[in-house]
Target: Glutamate--tRNA ligase
Amino acid sequence: MSQTPQIVTRFAPSPTGYLHIGGARTALFNWLYARGRGGKFLLRIEDTDRARSTPEATAAILKGMAWLGLDHDGDVVSQFDRADRHAEVALEMLANGHAYKCFASQDEIQAFREEARAEGRSTLYQSPWRDADPATHPDAPYVIRLKAPREGKTVIRDEVQGDVTIRNDQLDDMICLRSDGTPTYMLAVVVDDHDMGVTHVIRGDDHLNNAARQTIVYQAMGWDLPVWAHIPLIHGPDGKKLSKRHGALGVEEYEAMGYPATAMRNYLARLGWSHGDDEFFSDAQALEWFDLSGIGKSPARFDFKKLDNLSGQHLAAMEDADVLAALQGYMEAAGEISLQSQQIDLVSSAMYVLKTSAKTLPQLLEKARFATVSRPIDRDEKAEKALDEVSRGILKELTPQLQNGSWDRNTLEDTLNGLAEAHDLKFGKLAAPLRAALAGRAVTPSVFDMMLVLGRDETIARLEDASA
Model:
């Protein structure tokens, strides 16, 4: 019985900038498809454009993928480093008659196109050297062009788009090797995918037309075609292609905005792919459910409200230690001063109330302020207003009542409610100055949670500071 070949996917970004959110989703889809089927997920940096490719951009791409948790198999492949192999394939196609030497100059090609345009013909260049006798070849620079079929059609069997048919008379004899001996991107992609054993090419649908031209290279070399899956691009809320005007584009910007990586994976997976009505799901569920059949044909729309909602759900569902690790990672990415050991202990003990009331890590950090600040507490304007003379007097009265007795929620509730009743106050009127004293803010977790986390000595010290 024959074994099913192992699935191999790849992500192949160009290192000309940050990891774009669209690229991150492409990487995620490839990662999910391979990892969910026990396959391999490979990473190739398409750095043939030497003028625009930078080591800094490669580092940014690797950093973005590491934050998203998209681990790859084997070493990172540099497309530029494989130029000799690409040239070797071009020469092999030349030798087997699937490619030819073209000696046409740029001026000749331009003249052909202008004449074709004037006569209303196709401007796809048809080289006079395609079927020329090698004996007539001049001693001059040349490019190697692929011999594309002139008649019939090429059908791309796409798992997302369905069968896409392109007439062969719309395909040009693309250049595979330039006159300086360097390979073109279109050839390099096919050679790399073949040599890396890629079985499934999952990428943006802006590459759909490339698939027809690349198919001809596969056929010329007698190589098996990969499974194609071209996914629609991401649009902004206004339905236009995602761009800077819609907000953040790079993955690192979302890390710095304080979205946990697990929420980002969930949200990106839902951008253009669905599993029934499921919106919130775990990594394990995504790996189990993800399939190419769930990818839609229409562009997905990026929606910050949905991202915020998912982010809040993930924070609430995460283990406390994972939230703390994500918080510290966010603080580093945002340039915040990292937490000290005592602050970490207090934030950890407060996590049960913090993670259920925040949608993003900055919101969680703001809620955790009472656990990260030290005395004397810096108070904002609203908190300062809550500490009027009457409130300070009530806090002075409360302090000795907290010196003795159990330090548990029931005892604290009885003590504070009793004090509010004694002054004929609703509890909210007492809570406001307590929040100001304990956190320096008007909006905080419950005063009981803060007191329990801070402990008796620190709570009393903060109350004494505020009532002085």
Q: What stands out?
A: The CA atoms of residues 374 and 467 lie 17 Å apart. The chain has 19 helices and twelve strands. The chain has three domains: 81-231, 245-363, 381-467.
